[in-house]
Amino acid sequence: MASSGAKVKKIKRIIFLKDVMVIALSAFGGPSMHIALFQKRMVERKRYLTDQELLELYSLAQMLPGPSSTQTITSMGYKFGGPVLAFLTLMIWVLPAFVLMTMCSFLFVWLDMEVTNKVFRFIQPLAVAFVVTAGIGMAKKVTKGSLRLILMLAAFIIVALLRHPLEQYVKTPWMFPVLIVGGGVVSYFLNKKEHQTAVQDASNKPKIVTKWTYLIVFAAIFILVAVAGKVTENQFFVVFENMYRFGSLVFGGGNVLVPMMFDQFVQFQSWIKPDEFLTGIGLNQAVPGPIFTVATYCGGLIMRDGGFTNQILGCVVGTIGIFLPGTLMIFFVYPMWDSIKNLKIIRRSLDGVIAVSAGLVLAAGYLLFLPVAFNWIVPNSFHYTNLQQESFVNYFDIGLVIVLSLMLTKFKIPTPVWVVLAILAGILL
Prior knowledge:
Elements: H1 2-26, H2 31-45, H3 51-62, H4 68-105, H5 107-110, H6 113-119, H7 123-142, H8 146-161, H9 167-170, H10 175-190, H11 192-201, H12 212-232, H13 235-249, H14 254-268, H15 274-284, H16 294-302, H17 308-333, H18 337-340, H19 344-373, H20 395-410, H21 415-428
Helix pairs in contact: 1-4, 2-4, 3-4, 4-16, 4-17, 7-15, 7-19, 7-20, 8-10, 8-19, 10-19, 11-19, 12-13, 12-17, 13-17, 14-16, 14-19, 16-17
């Protein structure tokens, strides 16, 4: 019987990868839509796994840093064929979005800036509306519980509202990971109810099978690229280090990644202009596959001054950097998932991590709103003393963000349709 089961898995591997490609080409709308597609094709239609198994894999992804839907489908590959099939699954899943976001990064090189700004004029308010509605959606789920609500509000206040009086302390690339880890620590010590449940669930745990190699590689890369980037100041190392750090510390999906990238690439380093970043966020919504491929776009823009080859390499480095940590974590954790999924440290800390992540998404909506809603004398400096003295409020864009946010909440129109409509409006108006 065992050999028969193994034979069935071998026969299904090529078919499984074809199914992954079908999903990758149609996976619009972010992680929630991705999971729905996984359920429809992988569970209902192909019966690779059950609903319960899919939910468990998704829960595993939610407990790890990195892109949740990508880690879910990668763990499916691991389940059916070990690390090799998992790696092939990842490659096929990411490929369409990588190609399209690489092409998007060249828009600001191929097209005249005036033409680009006109065509994508309405993409920027739409991108803000996407982030705002995502933040509100996450906030609704988080507010069930006073501790989670406090942690969410604290993260929002620190990152968004205290940025101006405490800029030298808040405006640092380490603020986000510090808040995320801090939220997990606070939740672990104060989340007593979850502790009791976890202890009961974990009372009869099997032997843990540990693949330490992947964790060692994960940690070694984290340290080595940070040192290499600091010592050499080579832009490829710096881009890879930033993306790898984001991929290692982001909980909550692509919407949490956005504020980290905006803070680092737009405000802290000034490698990307606010309008370019917002345009990329909007275009990313029209691309099938993982939202984390916004790193592909950002990597290309950061390296564009080095010419065509460097820009392509920037896209590649950005993509590898953002997806590698989450993949290594799946390879490390999946073999022992059945043993650790009910450990109290996981269950109790996760609430705080998710709450802080929701606060960061709300902060992202606020920070992305500022360059769209107001006119600033010096770009990327959002002190209110830096506002232009005359006509500093963009009333039309503010109204547009509000209207679009309400429409995104009320109407279940696919995100690519919104993006296409925004581009057509920019061309025609």
